[in-house]
Design a protein that fits this description.
By secondary structure, the protein is an all-alpha fold. It has a domain of 114 residues. α2 packs across α3 and α4 packs antiparallel against α5. Helices cover 78% and strands 0% of the residues. It is built from six helices and no strands.
């Protein structure tokens, strides 16, 4: 009996649901600005993607190449990015719309504390930030998660067990 291979989108869906729950808990508890939790999120993403790559190679009985395993990991990353980006849009627009105002208020305080920026410059910068907050957020997620996904997929593909010379009869 042949073992069924978990599709990358399934792992991406599960990972993104965990990340969504994690981000909601952080927001509700007021810990979303805590840098340590950002690192925890990054480690969670990388550990899950490395596991996904290793699990894929195991499910394929090692009859994979480095490129196959890397592609599986990056497809998982793409699914996670797509789902988490949709969540980011929906949460910023409808679920937690006050989040944008809180971040703008924090940015205002930080700029005023530096003292090297005029009120006009602060207001101009903040109006641009408010206008483009969602595209900036989604772009940042795409860039950051893509980088983490590429690194984790490369690591996972490198450490996944592969059969060096599968025979045609094994396929």
């Amino acid at each position: 009996m042949e073992q069924k291979v978990v599709q990358p989108w399934v792992t991406g869906l599960i990972l993104s649901l965990v990340l969504i729950a994690f981000s909601i808990v952080l927001y509700v508890t007021g810990q979303s600005e805590n840098k340590i939790w950002g690192w925890v999120q990054s480690l969670l993403i990388m550990a899950t993607l490395i596991w996904s790559c290793m699990n894929y190679a195991k499910q394929m009985n090692g009859n994979v190449s480095y490129g196959n395993v890397f592609a599986h990991g990056f497809k998982t990353t793409a699914a996670m990015i797509a789902i988490f980006s949709v969540y980011t849009f929906i949460s910023s627009k409808y679920i937690f719309p006050e989040m944008i105002d809180k971040l703008i208020e924090k940015a205002t305080k930080e700029m005023e504390a530096k003292g090297n920026v005029t009120d006009e410059q602060i207001n101009a910068g903040l109006s641009v930030l408010k206008k483009f907050f969602i595209p900036i957020s989604i772009g940042t997620i795409m860039l950051t998660f893509s980088l983490l996904g590429a690194i984790a997929s490369a690591i996972g593909a490198g450490i996944a067990k592969k059969n060096p010379n599968p025979t045609p009869f094994d396929q």
